[in-house]
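Rotation project, supervised by the postdoc (A.L.). Task for the rotation student: set up a whole-complex structure prediction and record inputs and outputs verbatim in this book. Inputs entered:
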Amino acid sequence: MPDMNADPALQRLLHHYHSMPPVAVMQLSIGGYDGQRLQLHAPLSVHVNDKGCAFGGSLASMMTLASWGLVTLQVEAAGLHADVYVADSQLRYLAPLFADLDVEAELAPDARWEDFVATLRNRGRARTSIVARARLPGGGNATEFTARYVAIAKP
Amino acid sequence: MPDMNADPALQRLLHHYHSMPPVAVMQLSIGGYDGQRLQLHAPLSVHVNDKGCAFGGSLASMMTLASWGLVTLQVEAAGLHADVYVADSQLRYLAPLFADLDVEAELAPDARWEDFVATLRNRGRARTSIVARARLPGGGNATEFTARYVAIAKP
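Outputs recorded:
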């Protein structure tokens, strides 16, 4: 496991997250990033609902943020500057999560970063699909998430 | 507009919301409830993202909570006791929201509360579909949300 604190791109991303008031209170940290898959972590105690498991809205936020962060990292890695927006999302809650929130996001199987970056560079605007999940401690997924994100180049 | 603070069911719901740590920090209030449509409000300043508009995860949480609250109120109004879970959701972000978050939830057009309550009473478990939206100040919707919720009777 590489030291996440040593990577300037991840430091910038974490700072970006914490600059948003609703995200600053989530106590999230970056669990890992290998260039393709971004992992976020947050403590259950901050996100627990009335049934003792993770609040559905927190899981939605975590997967939305992990996917947004992944797109943002790819835009930056390509040397581009763009605002990144979520356009739509589908979320399935498969099992209650009675543990810390560990989510990960990656490009959807039918999408390619090369296409996304080329379109953003050429047209100033591009769209891509991301998949994310929250892991159960014993294996399998608590939630599964698919979303489309739009990047719009900054002038 | 009726006085929301005078309704014991809404007082219980608000207390229920605030008992959840991730919800307590959202500064939400109940904007209205007419027996069919539940409205929630939260200040933009608490939910603002890096682009100055409402964070997508906060909008997802607000619509998830409004829908959950609506199902919970209907279960209680029927004299039943059940845990209410979100099963899945679809969310479309139509326009950025540069104003306070005003969301509302109601039963999906093809669903009936009578069927939901009867099934919950008879089988101890029932499912229904809810639609929710976040309103733009000038009219129209910033987001649209459809979700299925499951209620499981408490022993």
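Student's summary: Residues 56-77 of chain B form the longest helix (22 residues).
Supervisor addendum: The mean pLDDT of chain B is 95.
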